[in-house]
Amino acid sequence: MLGHTVLMLGVVITVFPFYWMFVMASNTTADIFSYPPKLVPGSHLWENMSKVLDKTDFWGSMALTIVAATGTTILVLLIDSLAAFAFAKYDFPARNVLFAIVLATFMIPMQLALVPQFVTLAWLGWVGSLKALILPGAANAFGIFWMRQYAKGAIADELIHAAKVDGAGFFRQWWTVGLPVLRPGLAFLGIFTFFTIWNDYLWPLIVMTDPGKLPLQVAVQQLNGIYTTDQSMVIAGALMSVIPLIGVFLIGARHFIANLAAGAMKF
Amino acid sequence: MAVTESVQGSAGERRRATAGKELDGSRPLPGWRRYWPMYAAVSPFFFLFAVFGVFPVGYSIYLSFMSWDGIGDMKGVGWENYAYLLTDGDFWQSITNTLIIWVLSTVPMIFLALVIAYALHTTVRFKAFYRVAYFMPNITSIVAMTLVLGSVFSNSSGLLNNMLRAISAGEVGWLSDPWAMKVAVAAITTWRWVGYNAIICLAGLQAISSDIYEAARVDGANNRQTFFRITIPMLRPVILFVAITSTIGGLQLFTEPQVLFPDAAGNVGGPGGEATTIVLYLYQQAFIFNRFGYGAAIGWALFILIAVFSVINWRLIGGRDELAADKRKGKRRAR
């Protein structure tokens, strides 16, 4: 009983900001900041959302973020599953050294590389382009580490033998044997990567300098900078930026959380 | 290189043993033809990491000895950036701010995560619901939720101050008072990460074999004793993981203070820069003031700080393990 009381109290505090986001987005700014404040959802949600759509290129920002997150996710899944398949199921000279290097790259905080990474992209002429949003995030050491653990347990040696006897080369084995078995692991890594890129803020803030091409997080933050007096509208924009994620999360939540916890236990 | 459990090795053996010559000949392929696909498979990561990881990190060493505004010519300044770093009051303030916010968020966070994990572990019903609810903050965007909580913390008419006024407790300058500002940032961080860390701790709790508890109960240990003598020590690796990731994350805090205190004039971290964290300061110097060389130097200072704190964590939480092992060894020897 005490357990449930503690847990319910925690849930109320945890979930309250989401509720409050909805309350703010569906009332007028005057209502929220009045005293006593309005604590229940109002009827102005549509109005506030229309204001966001009128005054900003919200759909453009969302499209940009969807493309960036999808592009990164596909690249990460291809690159990491290939590398993890090789590391987990094959032996080749220098394999352990190479894998140790992958692990070592965990240790480098990317803030260290922030300035030179920006300079590198400026040289390449990529600042403000989709490439700048997608490619740096595609080198994902965590994904290789995680997928390798997964592949070790999931792919039976016999399956690979069988494919070999059928004359399949390495890449055919990866495609026909590896990928189908790895699918649940790929689903987790894919959602994880997608969320990370969707929510990323510092990097897009630095490289996406063209005001006509702002990714979602930057656009929402700028909304606050420009229309700070109309909090209802700002929060409506914030709400619109998180709804797709919450939707995806609620569909696959149980699977996602279990995998994430399992990943942490492997360290 | 160990070949024992590899597919290549055992496939070769099996081929020799059963199929004989009729497959692809009895001699193994020469090294290059045999191994190139694996190297090809791992190379995209290394290529990308070389371009976007190794090169920038290496280049940032060079850059940190330069004075450069990103457009004009670079000028070598030797150790000047680092010398300036040591005397730059704003930089030191950003370190102090970061550490205060880190303590204010990490300590309650680990405590609450353990409490929630323990409650989840001992609860049978609604487990799935709780887990999803607690995890939600972690997947939603920091920008959006910081905006929401920012207006809850708003000085004049935010929800929190309205509530405090309603119980005649007086209002707090959440977005203007040096300490309250840090508390606000820490609260947002804690809110976002408690659930995540609770789930990790829960996984750790579930990994402890019930046999150990059974044995303790047989020996007459009470709940308190089992919690402090078994649960906490067995959880140490998980707590270490949580502590290290919280430290790395805490020292790199950026989005919360940046969104909470917007300023068009290039100032960061709110009134008096009291919520300026190290990364926020780096961002300001490098990307608002275009001091790329100095920004690179701040990056290295941050790196050293993270390394030092990770080692401290390791010593504090992981080190006791070795200590205990030494003690046990000593005892055994004494016997």
Automatic annotation (TrEMBL), chain B:
<comment type="similarity">
    <text>Belongs to the binding-protein-dependent transport system permease family.</text>
</comment>
<feature type="domain" description="ABC transmembrane type-1">
    <location>
        <begin position="95"/>
        <end position="313"/>
    </location>
</feature>
<protein>
    <submittedName>
        <fullName>Sugar ABC transporter permease</fullName>
    </submittedName>
</protein>
<keyword id="KW-0813">Transport</keyword>
<feature type="region of interest" description="Disordered">
    <location>
        <begin position="1"/>
        <end position="23"/>
    </location>
</feature>
<dbReference type="InterPro" id="IPR035906">
    <property type="entry name" value="MetI-like_sf"/>
</dbReference>
<dbReference type="Pfam" id="PF00528">
    <property type="entry name" value="BPD_transp_1"/>
</dbReference>
<keyword id="KW-1133">Transmembrane helix</keyword>
<keyword id="KW-0812">Transmembrane</keyword>
<feature type="compositionally biased region" description="Basic and acidic residues">
    <location>
        <begin position="12"/>
        <end position="23"/>
    </location>
</feature>
<dbReference type="GO" id="GO:0005886">
    <property type="term" value="C:plasma membrane"/>
</dbReference>
<dbReference type="InterPro" id="IPR000515">
    <property type="entry name" value="MetI-like"/>
</dbReference>
<keyword id="KW-0472">Membrane</keyword>
<dbReference type="InterPro" id="IPR051393">
    <property type="entry name" value="ABC_transporter_permease"/>
</dbReference>
<feature type="transmembrane region" description="Helical">
    <location>
        <begin position="36"/>
        <end position="59"/>
    </location>
</feature>
<feature type="transmembrane region" description="Helical">
    <location>
        <begin position="234"/>
        <end position="254"/>
    </location>
</feature>
<feature type="transmembrane region" description="Helical">
    <location>
        <begin position="193"/>
        <end position="213"/>
    </location>
</feature>
<keyword id="KW-1003">Cell membrane</keyword>
<dbReference type="GO" id="GO:0055085">
    <property type="term" value="P:transmembrane transport"/>
</dbReference>
<feature type="transmembrane region" description="Helical">
    <location>
        <begin position="99"/>
        <end position="120"/>
    </location>
</feature>
<feature type="transmembrane region" description="Helical">
    <location>
        <begin position="292"/>
        <end position="312"/>
    </location>
</feature>
<feature type="transmembrane region" description="Helical">
    <location>
        <begin position="132"/>
        <end position="153"/>
    </location>
</feature>
